[in-house]
Amino acid sequence: EIVLTQSPATLSLSPGERATLSCRASQSVSSYLAWYQQKPGQAPRLLIYDASNRATGIPARFSGSGSGTDFTLTISSLEPEDFAVYYCQQRSNWPPRFTFGPGTKVDIK
Amino acid sequence: EVQLVESGGGLVQPGRSLRLSCTASGFTFGDYAMSWVRQAPGKGLEWVGFIRSKAYGGTTEYAASVKGRFTISRDDSKSIAYLQMNSLKTEDTAVYYCTRGWYFDLWGRGTLVTVSS
Asked: Looking at the complex, does the CB of residue A41 fall below 8 Å from at least one CB of chain B?
């Protein structure tokens, strides 16, 4: 089973600052990695799929990179609505399984 | 409007059963695989299982934690996906979300399942 590790657990930043979130897989997931944003009391929202593709309607300040075992979600300039928890997720092809990382909370400094 | 709406959650005793529904609207439900994801109170996200579209056999896959107890099915004529949960345990307490496709690009608001005596 592939295990995802996210760092840091909490990131304290101010609006306008750059956020860099890391996700590491215990073995290669190729580019089958997605990022989700979740705000309190809400369902998660897809931000990035296949490591670097922005989902429909996602602002350009969100970008994803990486392949294999190391991935990064970057928020170029934090807006007030970006303070939330971010999860990475991998998809393995056979057997088909989906695994989420434990999450990174981005809070206001 | 494109949306998913879960229903059927509630309080249930350990060992009992519950069936959740996920009603889709605004898109061609039958074209998509559908997944269930859960989130225990204050915890992270856990994939529960999915069902392929009929074009890909309509077969299912499950997480090890629920395999043999949970069953996912679908009724494309009604645009509904189901999650049948049997032999429920206290650790199954969570908000259950349904999601669309391989990329989980659409989520419902979730339904809370509480397993407690």
From this structure: no
In this structure, the strands spanning B94-100 and B34-39 are: antiparallel
For A35-92, what is each residue's pLDDT tens digit? 999 999 999 999 999 999 999 999 999 999 999 999 999 999 999 999 999 999 999 8
pLDDT in tens, B60-103: 999 999 999 999 999 999 999 999 999 999 999 999 999 999 99
Tell me the percentage of chain B whose pLDDT exceeds 70: 100
Cα separation of B17 and B101, whole Å? 26
Partners of residue B50 in chain A, C-beta under 8 Å: 96, 98
Residue with the two structure tokens 């206290």: B90
Q: Given pLDDT bands bounded at 50, 70 and 90, which one contains residue B112?
A: very high
| Spacing of C-alpha B88 from chain mean position | 14
Minimal CA separation from A48 to chain B, in Å: 9
For B48-51, which contacts have Cβ atoms below 8 Å and span 24 or more sequence positions?
A: B48/B83, B48/B96, B49/B83, B50/A96, B50/A98, B51/B81
- Residue from the list A43, A95, A101 with its beta carbon closest to the beta carbon of B97: A43
Interfacial A residues in 7-26 facing B (CB < 8 Å): none
Interface probe with A: pick from B39, B103, B105, B106, most Cβ of A within 10 Å? B103
